[in-house]
Every structure is written in structure tokens, then in C-alpha cells.
Amino acid sequence: MIAIKSAREIEIMAQAGRILADTLALVASRTEPGVSTADLDAIAETFICRHLGATPSFKGLYDFPATLCTSINNEIVHGIPSPERILREGDVISVDCGVCLEGLHADSAVTLPVGTVSPEARRLLQVTQDALDAGITAAIQGNHVGDVGHAVQRVVERAGYSVVRELVGHGIGTSFHEEPQIPNYGKPRRGPRLMPGMTLAIEPMVNLGLPQIRTLDDKWTVVTADGSLSAHFEHTVVVQPDGPRVLTPAPVSAEA
Ligand code: MG
Ligand code: MG
Question: Which residues pair with 144 in a beta bridge?
């Protein structure tokens, strides 16, 4: 059963989404060599909790211990912030975060360059962002979940990269993870049909090398099996009669 959100619920999710987008912009502005992932986590948690009624969605979700997932280089998702993980020039760091407001969630992620990164890393980030944009564009009334995955996969594979299969996007609302699952691959016209009021977290995870993954001994951090770089971008989107609306848009001042 895929929940259809009311106009009021969507407005609350949009408010949560704005706080979340501002959080990620703040984290981006503080991302530089010498900063630890625990520093970024503290910055994000403090900022979110400064907003009346807003809480970090991740903290305690499936017993995750932090506000951010911070995943560096070959880490794909679910990295745990630590004072011992210090960012270095040339790293890329994926920052994933959720905000809960009045019992409704928003979910977004960005992958950020630390200082100057290799041309290869820059291209991976751009392609992953383009894949997310393509997925969002396909999230229209009457399309199916498979159209979203197909759009993402096309951009990624045309660029010579690979899509992670085991981890997927998802519906989002009163629960952080709701139906439907949204794979980053698929066939057009397959899967559940998209209807106005569905709220979706679309989140391509793209590996520079092979698609295979493994999970580290901390039971959280997911890395590329071949050690290649990985990137992750995510927005929470609502399907509307006049097209998709992104509920977690980057603040205008933070856009390049
Ligand atoms: Mg996320
Ligand atoms: Mg998500």
C-alpha cells in the first residue's frame, strides 16, 4: 500500500525538507581538509535541533548512532561519523541526512568534494547528480517506478559507471522508509504506478567501477567491493499533477 499524502502533510514535509536542505548547505560550507566526520555530524545535529520541533531522523533509526551518514571515497552509504575520520584534500564525502517535523520525514544526500578532487571524481559526482535529475524528471503522474529506475540507470551506464543494486530509494512520510522501493535500475512501465500525493526518496548510488558492494565489520558502512569511488545524491520528491516537486531543494545561495 503506497500512502497518498494530504496537502497539509506535503507542506510539513516541505518545511522539514527546507531545514534539511539548509543543513546540508551548512555541512557543505564546513567541509574541508582537517575536519572530522564527527565535527560535521555535530554541526548538523545542532542546526536541526535549533528549529522548533525538528529532530534528526537517523538518530536511533534501526539504532544508527548519529545525525548524518558520512561515507568517504569507496564508502557508498551508511558510514558512521567519527572524530578519527579526518577529511583529506582530494576526498569525496557523501553526506546523507533526514529531518523529522511533526511526525513527517524528509531525506536528502549530497556528495561533496574536499578541496580539489581529481577530474575523474568530479565527473562521477556530476553524472550521479545528472542521474538523480533524470530520475526526478521521470517521477510524473502515470509513469511507473520502473520509469524512474530506468532513467537513472541510463544516465549512469551511458557514462560507463555502474548502479548499486542492493540499495534502493523508497517512499517516505510518517515512516522514514515506506513503500514503494525505488531501484536505481529498471524497465519502463514496470512496477507500481505513480500518483499525485506520493512522496518518494530518489537516491542513485553510483560506483566508478563494478556494482558489487560489501558491508564492513561495523555492520553499517557499505563499500564498493572493488575499492572504486562511489557517489550518492538524493532528494525527497512529491508527485503532483503538474510534475514532480522537489521538497529538499538546495538553498539558492548555496548553488554554484
Ligand atoms: Mg538518505
Ligand atoms: Mg533515502
Answer: 193
Mean pLDDT of 145-158: 98
Q: How many domains does the chain have?
A: 1
Q: Which of 208, 192, 228 is nearest to 2 (CA)?
A: 192
Ligand nearest to the CA of 233: 1
- Whichever domain contains 24, its CATH number is 3.90.230.10
Asked if residue 214 belongs to a domain, the reply is yes
Starting from the CA of residue 175, give the closest ligand: 2
- In the reported structure, the alpha carbon of residue 138 is separated from the centroid of ligand 1 by a whole-number distance in angstroms of 19
Residue pair 82/39 in contact by the 8 Å Cβ criterion: no
Res. 254: pLDDT tops 60: no
Residue-range definition of the domain harbouring residue 131: 7-246
CA of 170 to the centre of ligand 1 (A): 10
